[in-house]
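subagent[fold] <- orchestrator: predict structure for attached chain, return tokens only, no commentary.
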Amino acid sequence: AEYMGDGNFMSFVDRLDDEYTKALQFTDPHTQDYVTRLSDEAYLMDALERMFQYYMGRGMPKHGTRLATRLLDHLYHRRQADHQKILTKQRSVSEVRKKKRKVEDEAELQARLAALAEKTGEAVEGQDPAEEASQVEEIASPTTGKTKAATQRPLQLLTPSLSESLQRLLQMIMKHGDEKAKARAILCKVYHLALHDQFSQARDIVLMSHVHELVLSATPPFQILFNRVLAQLGLAAFRQGLFKDVHVALNELCASQRVKELLAQGTPSRGYQQDRKPEQERQDKMKLCPFHTHINLDVLEAVHLVSAMIVEIPMMAANPYDSKRKVQSKAFNKLLTHYESQVFLGPPELTRDYIYAASQALLKGDWRRCYELTAALSAWDLMPEGEEVKKMLHQSIKEEALRSYLLQFAEYYDTVSLKALSEKFELEPNTVHAVVSKMMFTEELSGSWDQPAACVRVHRTNPTKLQYLCTFMAEKLQGLVEYNERILGGRGGGFGYPLGGESKLARPSEVIWGNFSRWSALGGSGAGRRPLGGMQNRAFSTQGGRQRGNNQRQGQRYY
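subagent[fold] -> orchestrator:
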């Protein structure tokens, strides 16, 4: 049976979805009410899918694209196992609805037959039920004349495979959607790939689509989604042991003190905005993501700090006294500076305490202590692949401890045995050989392999602290001398390269003593000898002694 309704179905579904999201935002996530409301998502998804089939079956792709975007917002943050459970409930809801509708249709058909019999005054007997139903439909249905193909619904959009369902929605949006919808669909696809450990493919999509160029001029919901994609990319890179990629993805996001706000998982604190009105607080709360889509901030902080430690500590070991060394993570260096300024440090309690203690152990090459402190973090228990992450960290920490040990203590060795390094760090000889060879190739370690003796011969070591301080002081003194010479040349006008004539440098010692008369012999009459600063100095004139005396006194007043 066909049902007629007043109004716009598209607007009704949009409003229904918005109100459902608002209900999740304003419900306490730690109560049973939130769980009950969250279980209603299957009914909403069923309604969205039916409306999508309705509009696509009637050749209205623009409305179908809007519904596909809303379906994508409900799917991109799911995992495969969760999607199968929710889809099973959604299909059961659909079956119950179909059975209930079938019963209602049969009851309506009987009512129409009875009404038709009373109207015509004769009982319809001896006819086939299908013919009776067609007769009733021809009389009572307002859709007489439509073909069967026009009212036939397409196949089901959502499948048990989450990747296949997302791919169908993405193709629909890329074909009929506008630019904003396409960019948002790409970010949802990247988030899904990163969530399922397909980091390389997700990163390539971001770089090739240039979607990061639209962030500054985009709306706040788009910026929030982009920040969530960056966070998920960093977590995916960490699970694969790509610590430099983790640093690139999370450095700017985690360096700020407003990670919760950037990910739309919390409102600004009272310290930032003390005069906020209740209406503004309500608007800020409406921008938040539902609690079941949140990214764990403790896991994010642990991933960022551990990656920064593994990237930064070997560089600190290579340049222990260089204050001008390139800093990879300012937030991590700020953390180290804060803890080093403390008079007393107790046993580690917070994530930052554990990371600082692990950093000090890694700097000394003590990989066992470093791994014990890192593995003691409770954040790994919150990750789906916690045990695999710990195994990856165990191997990575041993390799980075080997690098730090060689960079910091190579000056005390003439040769280092491959067997001794393998036993000390419990690594395979092939792994030790690969790590040391890479250090030689990148010029981090100046040495060579002695293949018959199976050892590393150290050729040149880093300067000691005294040598570095002497070099640093010499560079500072040289810069100070050059700075003074530029000042004196600008005031006296005789220092620097003159424009035209023979290129000679003035003697700064004479400038200091104000003996300008001896400079007159350098340029003859002084014609065409203008100093580099564009100032003409009368001390170059060959006039009488009175003029020279005035110039000398003028120079003495300067200096």
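orchestrator: received. Logging for downstream: The mean pLDDT is 77. The first helix runs from residue 9 to 25.
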